Every structure is written in structure tokens, then in C-alpha cells.
Amino acid sequence: MYEGRKVSVVFPAYNEAAGIEAAVAESIERAQLAGELPADIDPRLLAESLLAFYYGARLMSMVDPSWEPVAHFEVIAEVLARTKR
User: Fold this and answer.
1) Which pLDDT score is estimated for 12?
2) Do the Cβ atoms of 8 and 14 come closer than 8 Å?
3) Which of 9, 43, 49, 77 is at 20 to 30 A from 19, Cα to Cα?
């Protein structure tokens, strides 16, 4: 049914998500240039990872209204902040 068709044609929201991902990656690149984030991190990969967490958190919130995405994000941020390279 969808064989040979572009994802962006079958799922128009894909274009919007790609635009959001690009904007997040650009923000990450600016933060790297300002010395606020490590320069050796791939901005696109980090953007994809952050958005994957965000979309998953939204889904979890729909399934279980008591699930708190901000608390989970804070735990991940805390672990990353303590991690040494």
C-alpha cells in the first residue's frame, strides 16, 4: 500500500518533526559554539535523542496521567551531569 512512497507523503507530520529536529540541532550547535555543551557531541544525534524522549514521555503521560515526564527528565539530566568522560 505504501511501498515506494516517501514517509513525508504518507505521514505529513514527519515533515514537521524533521523541522523541529533541525531547529533543536541548530540550538545545540549554537550552545556548542558558545562553550555551553561539549563540542564532540553530534548535535543531530542529541536532538534525535531528546525528541525521542519527549515523544515517549508524551505517550506515557497519555497512558498513565500520573506519570510525570519532567521528573523523569530531571533524573536523566542529573545522571548525565554526574557522568565524567
Assistant:
1) 58
2) yes
3) 77
Nearest Cα to Cα of residue 28 among 47, 50, 7, 14: 47
pTM given for the model: 0.70
Rounded to the nearest angstrom, the gap between the alpha carbon of residue 16 and the centroid of all alpha carbons in its chain is: 13
The grid cell for 42 is 553530534
What are the boundaries of each domain within the chain?
Answer: 7-82
pLDDT of the residue at 79: 85
State the Cα–Cα distance between residues 60 and 68, nearest whole angstrom. 9
**Distance between CA 20 and CA 9 in Å, rounded?**
17
Distances (CA, A) of 40 to 4, 18, 35, 61, 64: 36, 23, 11, 33, 37
Residues 84 and 61: their CA atoms lie apart, in Å, by 31
Interacting residues of 85 by C-beta distance below 8 A, sequence separation 6+: 38
Query: What gap in Å lies between CA 72 and CA 75, rounded to an integer?
Result: 5
